[in-house]
Design goal:
Layout: H1 2-64, E1 68-72, H2 83-95, E2 105-110, E3 125-129, H3 132-145, E4 148-150, E5 153-159, H4 163-173, H5 176-181, E6 185-189, E7 193-198, E8 201-205, H6 208-216, H7 253-264
Antiparallel strand pairs: 1-3, 1-5, 2-3, 4-5, 6-7, 7-8
InterPro entries: Transposase_22
Protein name: L1 transposable element RRM domain-containing protein
């Protein structure tokens, strides 16, 4: 009997020792987990800060490009040795605008290296105008007119955006086929914000992923109100990024003005 009690006592002591060891290990793990959670929280906060700073940098870069325009489709060497003089002469004729004072440029040049064989498409020209009002005039006419036909080639005039903004605009424009399929009217506004309207409901999106989730919600829903959408002339041209302002999806100017007035008192959900 005494032997059994002694054996049980030893086993109890051993179990207590094991439990104490486990408690120590659990305490250590809890401490490490607490430390890791603190690190994760710190990293998340810094990630938010970085995202915010990146958005601010993108905004500042876009603002610094507000005087810029990009011209696509002008054949290589067409501009001659003086790009600014060429644009000062061509743009008023191209857009039928009268500028007073005349157009003045801070700088103008081709973008990117020249192709050695000359077989690729001509490089775009980027121009920085001295007066922002003239920049807006040119972009307004380009947006309303579309591509300008000159002899055997087309010239497109667009705004100049930062890389991040261009990527967001391209991501938004990639949804145009789905928007037309779902009979949803849309507009792409400066610098990269898409507004959509469906059955009298208006929404605006700053993130293409949010727009994707919104469209997915219609995937299995029947379209109960048909709104004809006019195809875009540039739907198949991935190299074309619309100019500043509205990229119309079958929406005329009258509808745009009506839409803006209706939105003034309507609370949209991002």
């Amino acid at each position: 009997m005494d032997a059994s009690i002694s054996s049980l006592t030893l086993e109890t002591k051993s179990m207590r020792s094991d439990i104490a060891s486990f408690q120590s290990r659990v305490t250590g793990m809890e401490h490490r987990m607490g430390t890791q959670e603190t690190h994760v929280t710190t990293i998340q906060d810094r990630d938010q800060d970085l995202s915010y700073l990146r958005s601010k940098i993108t905004d500042l870069e876009d603002r610094s490009r507000r005087h810029n325009i990009r011209l696509f489709g002008i054949p290589e060497n067409e501009e001659g040795p003086d790009v600014q003089a060429f644009l000062s002469s061509v743009l008023p004729k191209l857009t039928s605008l009268t500028f007073d004072p005349p157009l003045e440029f801070q700088r103008a040049h081709r973008v990117g290296p020249k192709s050695p064989d000359g077989a690729s498409r001509p490089r775009p020209i980027i121009a920085c105008l001295l007066r922002h009002t003239q920049t807006r005039q040119l972009l307004q006419v380009a947006r309303n007119h579309g591509p300008f036909q000159v002899d055997r080639y087309e010239i497109r005039i667009t705004a100049d955006y930062s890389k991040d903004t261009n990527e967001r605009r391209k991501a938004f424009l990639a949804f145009r086929p789905r928007l037309r399929q779902l009979e949803i009217k849309y507009g792409l506004f400066d610098p990269a914000r898409m507004w959509v309207t469906k059955n009298g409901v208006f929404k605006d999106f700053y993130n293409p992923e949010d727009l994707r989730l919104f469209l997915d919600s219609f995937q299995h829903q029947p379209t109960d109100s048909a709104i004809p959408i006019r195809p875009q002339d540039t739907a198949g041209d991935d190299s074309y990024i619309p100019t500043s302002g509205l990229e119309r999806g079958g929406t005329d100017q009258l509808h745009v003005k009506t839409l803006i007035f209706r939105i003034v008192g309507f609370a949209t959900t991002k």
